[in-house]
Amino acid sequence: MDSRGITVTIGGRKWVLAADTHVGLEIEMAAKGIMVPSQTQRILDEIKKTADAEGANNVAILGDLKHELPLPLESTKETKQFLTGLSKEFDNVLVILGNHDGGLDKIINDLGLPNLTYTDSRGIVIEGTKNVLLLHGNSKPREEDFVKSDVIVMGHTHPAISMQDSTGYIMRRPVMVRMELDKKRIANKMYSKNVGKGKVTVIVMPTFNPLTIGMDVSSSLAAEPGFNTILKYMEPWRMPKNIEIYLTDMTFLGTLDNLVEYNEHRKGRYKARGGKRRS
């Protein structure tokens, strides 16, 4: 199934995981003269479609649920609609606060929905056969959570790729990133401590909002990031052969070094044509 979310079973429960829904983005676009219909129901429908395909009854939004800062009246309405819709569809709704989510805790508290909970951007561990740490990605997790986690799922960085067809048309597609990393190496960078053992699987989710695509991983992961993300502690640019890239339908595209090489080749062809891109 082609979805920007994933479904996982943790502790006997099936969860839909989605990141960076950015509810209310179209309101900001309208202020700039770009008129786009509300995407809130469309995002809800896509999350429900992902859940129905796998029989999932729980959902977690991994940060940046809403878009605008500060939060205007129109965006507050969209955010409440989105949260209420999730609460009606799922047994449990977990929200990880992201860097765009200022004031969201108050909205959640005001709604008073019993199956809707939230935690800060440092995330939460859901324990099971494998302990899964869910967080946004702009703040490093608590040390004790990192040590006991087997899998980390995050958003924040909006991974994508640029693809060029035979006519020269370039399109950008959201992708998922998977890494197998040494826990002690990350802990030394993150906490200046030699804690943790073995490997940890890190999954970076794409943005779920259909109006956004993201940043090309061949540049955003191939060099030290210029913005705040815990990927700076993981240093994917030092091990591009170990960074796996997937389309949202889980088609394996290759490793990061393959994509960097492809983009360099594409840029070379562009220059060879005298800088003229076909459309």
Task: Note the topology.
Blueprint: E1 6-10, E2 13-18, H1 25-31, H2 40-54, E3 58-62, H3 73-89, E4 92-96, H4 104-111, E5 116-119, E6 124-126, E7 132-134, H5 143-148, E8 151-154, E9 159-164, E10 170-182, H6 183-191, E11 199-204, E12 215-216, H7 217-220, H8 231-234, E13 243-247, E14 252-255, H9 256-272
Parallel strand pairs: 2-3, 3-4, 4-5, 7-8, 8-11, 9-12
Antiparallel strand pairs: 1-2, 6-7, 9-10, 10-11, 10-13, 13-14
Helix pairs in contact: 2-3
**Which whole number gives the mean pLDDT?**
89
How many β strands by DSSP?
14
Report the uncertain regions: none
C-alpha end-to-end distance: 30 Å
Rg over alpha carbons: 19 Å
Number of helices: 9
Integer count of domains: 1
Largest sheet: 9 strands, mixed
Q: What is the helical fraction, as a range of percent? A: 25-40%
Strand % is 25-35%
Secondary-structure element string: EEHHEHEHEEEHEEEHEEHHEEH
What is the overall shape?
Answer: globular
Helix-and-strand structural type: alpha/beta
Characterise the protein shown here.
It is a single chain. The protein is α/β, with parallel strands linked by helices. Helix content is 31%, strand content 25%. The chain is built from nine helices and 14 strands. Helix 2 packs parallel to helix 3. The two termini are 30 Å apart. The mean pLDDT is 89.
